[in-house]
Amino acid sequence: MESSFSVARSKVLSAGMALCAVFLWAPANAQSVGVRGGISLEPNQFYFGGHVETPPLADMVHFRPNVEIGLGDDVTVVGLNFELVYKFATQRPWGVYAGGGPALNVINTKSNTHSEGGFNIVLGAAHRDGLFIEVKGGALDSPNFKVGVGYAF
Predict the structure, then answer these.
(1) Model's pTM, two decimal places?
(2) 91 bridge partner residues
(3) What is the domain class of 4-152 according to CATH?
């Protein structure tokens, strides 16, 4: 039987490896790399993570895969989100974007670890200097609601 320390260490290592995988997977021509954090509801958690963003795939549509690691509510959720975002044209320092996409959620509880599919819808605002805020709605086995802030380099 594993000690609670070794189980916790295993969870942190798994989450760290998932986050590293996103950054290593980033295309060489990635437009930006960013970090993010916030809170989610259902489950009630604090989350952190990172993303990469490609140059426009078509018009103003960007591919923004991200990893979000949620901790709390006696569960760890590692969300691998494959999101497309549309950036609305603007001449101001803040721009608005919206999008969504499928997710693979690795859910770890005290009794087991399993993977479930999900879907996210995202709405956000980004400053041209890198700061962004966003809200996400989740369906299927994604967290129901997230509010986050981040920075894109």
Answers:
(1) 0.79
(2) none
(3) mainly beta
